[in-house]
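User: Design a sequence. Structure:
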């Protein structure tokens, strides 16, 4: 009986830790943009959902290059609520691209919420 309680306590600890690791879910996590024209303005929308039990503020959104510009609401995302983030990509080079969009949140997540933009510039 004691072993069963220890086991259940351990499982609860693991599941609570896993929930804290991902407090903001970004979807889609991968955006396949296909073929896009050089220097064209391409906009995608990401949805961010607060999975935690506390308000989350998106403090910053970091991108791989200056050709990728995010725009997001600065107000806190309440537990269970979602916000839309607009990301504009204006490519300056031809070829395949793989751009990572990373979310900096307060409070910080153990895992950095992120999305990836993929495609090819012609």
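Assistant: Done.
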């Amino acid at each position: 009986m004691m072993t069963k309680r220890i086991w259940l306590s351990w499982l609860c600890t693991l599941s609570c830790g896993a929930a804290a690791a991902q407090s903001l879910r970004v979807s889609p996590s991968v955006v396949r943009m296909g073929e896009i024209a050089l220097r064209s303005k391409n906009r995608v929308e990401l949805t961010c959902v607060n999975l935690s039990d506390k308000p989350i503020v998106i403090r910053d959104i970091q991108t791989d290059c200056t050709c990728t510009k995010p725009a997001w609401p600065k107000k806190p995302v309440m537990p269970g609520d979602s916000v839309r983030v607009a990301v504009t990509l204006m490519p300056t080079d031809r070829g395949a691209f793989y751009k990572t969009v990373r979310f900096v949140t307060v409070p910080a997540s153990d895992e950095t919420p992120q999305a990836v933009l993929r495609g090819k510039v012609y």
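The longest strand covers residues 95-106. The chain is about 15% helix and 50% strand.
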